[in-house]
Fold this sequence. Notes:
A: Leucine-rich repeat, LRR (right-handed beta-alpha superhelix); 18 helices; B: 516 residues; alpha/beta; 12 helices; 17 strands; globular
Amino acid sequence: MISGQSPPAERNPAIGTARSRWLWIALSSVLLLILPFAIPLNGESHAELIRFLGHFHPLLVHLPIGLLLLLAILEFAGTSRISFRETAGFVLYLTLATGAITLFFGLFLAYGDGVTGRTVTRHMWGGIALLIALVLCAGVRPAWISGQQTRVYPALLSVSLLILAWTAHQGGSLTYGSDYLTRYMPGPLKRIFPSSASDARYTGSFYLQSIHPVLDAKCVACHGAQKEKAGLRLDFYDLLIKGGKDGPVIVPKNPDRSLLLARVTLSPTDRHFMPAEGRTPLTADEIATIRAWILSGASPTEKSVPGFSRLAENTDFNFPPVGDYSNLLNEIQALQNSDGAKLVAVSSKASDGLILRTVDVASKFDDAQLAHFEPFAPFIVEVELGRTAVTDASFDTLAKFTNLRALHLEETAVTGRSFAKLSSLSHLNYLNLSGSKVTSDALALLKAMPNLHHIYLFNTPAESALQASKDIPRSTQ
Amino acid sequence: MKQHPLCTDCENSFTPLGLPIPAAAKHQWAAIETRRRFLGRSGKVLGWAALAALFGDMGVSTRLEGADVTSAPAHSGNSLGLPHFAPRAKRAIYLFMSGGPPQMDLFDYKPNLAAQFNKDMPDSIRGNQQLTGMTAGQAHFPIAPSHWPFAQHGQTASWVSTLLPYTARMVDDLTLIKTMNTDAINHEPAIMLMNTGNMNAGKPCLGAWLAYGLGSMNDNLPTFIVLQTKTNPKENNQPVSSRLWSSGFLSSEYAGVGLRSGTDPVLYLADPAGVDRAVRRNMLDTVEAINRQTLAEVGDPETNARIGQYEMAFRMQASVPELVDLSKEPQSTWDLYGPDARQPGTFAYNCLLARRMAERGVRFTQIYKRGWDVHGDVVGVLPVLCGETDRAAYALVTDLKRRGLLDDTLVIWAGEFGRTVYSQGGLSQENYGRDHHPRCFTAWMTGGGVRPGITFGETDDYSYNVVKDPVHVRDFNATILHCLGIDHSRFTYKFQGLDQKLTSPVPAHVVQGLLA
């Protein structure tokens, strides 16, 4: 082989050498192209030695990448300083050599570990295409140096860089998951690039709410569209039930015979323990959830599983999120300081809303003061007015608290004559009237409220009347 | 440098500056000290502020140490990003059965033990367990079946001993956990573990963690109140000390406030003759001004806690008399709680107070009932204990339920461990004793966040080992925190170089099967 350092004048007559070089190029390209057929990726793992070598692929791969980038830089810099160009020839052959080793190790990795899948295949063909492009580069570079061909080599090098970028992205997706670039993308960008969805037809099911997220976070990196280790995919319900090359991994109603559970509950030092390769193991809670789901029949549509009705599935707690009040914090603070009543966050999530708490100023808190909180009406989900001086007139204000879920009116002078005003509160679920002056006539006005499942009437005129005729459910709990 | 104003021995103790050191060196040292402090503090403050701004809710901003020392005591948990998620319970009431109730005489029904009366418990059941010194020397471990029959109750058909006729009425509301287990076999470490997640004293208890994390709901009453039940001399009362409601390494404003079990829940609450509210206020203002001076000079956060406690005491002068004034309770209350509730210091009275505190926004109430340590004379003592507690616990749950408070209150009934199936000392047809048993015991919960009407876990035929679904003390505490909207693994406080938490360094898990 002729290196780039040689003066161009010496190479022109050497036509025979050029011909044999093209022969070499054609031969190696064909060899590279048939390589995947010689070593088929059939999803079965192979000898330990092959796997051992294969695991060096992620380590080695960065060497040719760096060298190829260096090559491009050297060739570019060579336009102004010839000494860079002289080095570039050496770097090209070095890239070729390390690239070839990396390719083989990559094949060992996939073949040895029994990895299959769309991304693996793409990554492999990307690597082969890149190596062929590099071989071609080496073939045309002497002509470029001698000035016979001015465009082919730069074009081939640019193509190589593009193939490199694409192949490296496939490799990154394999290692870190397909969303490795977008996972921590800032919110506004995320709306422009929406992430892929899962089994949308099972929306609202226990599987999609509690099982799929666990598998997605802990298993799908190796058992998904990108990698299908052991021929198993866990990213869709049908594939999860189908199982892998060792047969089904889920046996409905029989968690003890379900391979998936067996593997995640082995000792972490066991070689069959999953997730493998030191990835984060499943927590006991997650395992318990999966076990309960399998025990109940591993249904994709079932809304709940005994013992595991989560917050979101419980109708008493299935409320729409409220808006974000964080830009109103100063106004809230000012109002609290003047009134003494407090607006308290339900949780650290703004969408969980606010609670109006009056216990510190109870006897002094009246309808007028309640009206001060109107500006925050859409964010308030619970109003505690127990032992305050509010009356039925407060319902005019409360009617505007459209996201209200719980209303405490115990030990107040409320009679309920104007309960009809509350009919706009479609989310109201809990109404505590203990010790108030509410009458049984007034309760009839509440009948139309669809979500009002918990009404408390202890020590009210309505209570005794109610005990005779069980018209309104007091509490469904 | 000035003497610390709170120093108790100001006359005789010496400061480094009082030592025979050259004056020049002293000045230099004083200057360095000031500069070092200034730089250290400002660096810390600026660094933390920058980090907090950068990381937002990553939890770096949990406590700006040094920065907020001089501000008023914070009572809102919001600065900690708590609750982590929407809680099912706003508050909790913990009925602590100190001494270790015998699970197989109350809840854990083992019908086949009757046939094995006085037979030795098989060695395979005990395994290599080390027993307490009280029974380790026994030649025999004769099985003592429960003296009392059991019956099924409610729609859930849960087994409950006839000793608990009132509790039996509410089994459909209870979450019975039969597989509680602990690491300790003696009272003090076991009771510390239940309360603080650690067998050694010095860690904050559950209530202090809640007060720290969730803050107060009512400015006029303490966030965390402890009620002790008057002891009954017939019972074997193990000591219960304020270590159990200590704030440990958290600021002392989060410690439990113990109310006395007598007629006067807080001593010297009334102003003495000739001192009215205005005079008291005036005095406290001056004390506060002095304390603020100290705070500015010394910068000890405990001074801040002291200022807060003076203020709390002042407000409690008005709020506590109203809290313990039972004259306005309707007759239905007395019908429910029974005559005991009229006697201050009884368990029933404390349960009634706990309901009143729940109404008034106390975050966490813990009632201690001592005497469950039945090493001997189970047949004589257990009915007394059940008589004191059974109706009161039922009354509390029922009262909370009818007033609509059970939806967002978590009620917990538990001791520090269980008792052995074999008899301690002599076993006769009439009587037996039971030793401490950490491997399984029964607790119950009810209210916000837990699944009503279930019996969780299974024990073996001797109520000795857990067969299915163990609930360790740490898992129990993690589950309690979960009901109150707290992820136990993220609820930490930096101390001694560790991210300390209630569930201690050993991994704990929320028991999903207990949750509603």
